[in-house]
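User: Sequence in, structure out. Go.
Assistant: Echoing your sequence, followed by the structure tokens.
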Amino acid sequence: MKKIEAFIRHEAFEPIRAELLDRGFPSLSILEAKGSGRQKGIVEHYRGSTLTVNVRPKLKLEVVVEDEDCQVVVEAILRHARTGEIGDGKIFVLPVEEAIRIRTGESGHEVLQLHDGAEASA
């Protein structure tokens, strides 16, 4: 199993979510994040003062998938998050040793599957 962590611009999230849902990956987590990288801070003017904001808002998208599905998810993220500008974000792919569904105690690859009769909701 692999965990894909992507730091993306807010506007890229909905197209990514929609494509992942269409491709059968309904389970994901998002977190509000702030960070800095090669993208420079923004200079803002507020009530006559100049402020430089050095951290930019991003979304952190987390998805755990089977090894063979990793490239599909990464390509979907790249397709919708890449503008070619500094600040598009980063993707990290990490190994996952174990996954356990708390409700049932199931573990391993079964945790990544939808339950019988369960449908992904938009």
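User: And one key feature?
Assistant: The chain has a mean pLDDT of 88.
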